[in-house]
Amino acid sequence: MRYVATTTLLLALCSTASQALQVGSDNIELKGTVVSGGCTVATGDNNKTVDLGSWKPSDLPSAGSTTTARSFNISLQSCPAASMVAIRFSGQSVAGQPSLLALDSASTASNVGIELKDKNAAPLALGDYSPVVTVDANGDATLEFSANLIATASPVGAGSVRADATFVLQYN
Questions:
Q1: Residue 118 and which of 18, 52, 96, 129 are 20 to 30 A apart at CA?
Q2: Short-list 123, 66, 128, CA closest to 91
Q3: CB 142 within 8 A of CB 73
Q4: Rounded to an integer, what is the distance from CA 163 to the centroid of its chain?
Q5: Residue 172 and residue 168: Cα distance in Å, rounded?
Q6: Calpha distance 59→65 (Å, rounded)
Q7: pLDDT one-digit tens code per residue, 49-97
Q8: Is the model's pTM score more than 0.70?
Q9: Burial code of 104-143, b = ≥16 C-beta within 10 A, e = fewer?
Q10: Contact status, residue 59 vs residue 161, Cβ threshold 8 Å
Q11: What is the mean pLDDT of residues 144-152?
Q12: Which of 5-19, 45-59, 129-143, 149-163 has the weakest average pLDDT?
């Protein structure tokens, strides 16, 4: 991906320069790569709901307290065989805590965010890529994650919890 962006920038700069001043002729070598189609998200994993469970405010007694993490997977198909794939989650973050996913406006709980974790149970900040997974010979890969509630302040107010995250795949 970075190579394509660099090539585009180079072409734009060369185009502007050639319009401004044409003195002699130079050679520009243009390079690129044609890649097979990207991965597709398996049916059922593209609009996934992860149930984080029901918890009492006393289960989150102070800022930084967390609930038990709930596991979820995102399965990919039709990836280039033997490639490596990672996912980056994005969404509205908690004010002052950009690594945590904020609750949406329909949520009624307060002082709570959602923490995403990678397959090793390490926190996965919004905007960071997950550890890579190798695609198998059939073009399939499964990325493992978990999520939990985290108190962002005290006291936590009871109510509904909902948030949306989107993800981007990166593979090579």
A1: 96
A2: 128
A3: yes
A4: 14
A5: 14
A6: 8
A7: 999 999 999 999 999 999 999 999 999 999 998 899 999 999 999 999 9
A8: yes
A9: eeeeebebbbbbbbbbeeeebebeeebebbebeeebebeb
A10: no
A11: 97
A12: 5-19
Per-residue pLDDT tens digits for 91-144: 999 999 999 999 999 999 999 999 999 999 999 999 999 999 999 999 999 999
Q: What is the SS3 string spanning the chain?
A: CHHHHHHHHHHHHHHHHHHHCCCCCCCCCCCCCCCCCCCEECCCCCCCCCCCCCCCHHHCCCCCCECCCEEEEEEEECCCCCCEEEEEEECCEECCEEEEECCCCCCCCECEEEEEECCCCCECCCCCECCCEECCCCCCEEEEEEEEEEECCCCCECCCCCCCCEEEEEEC
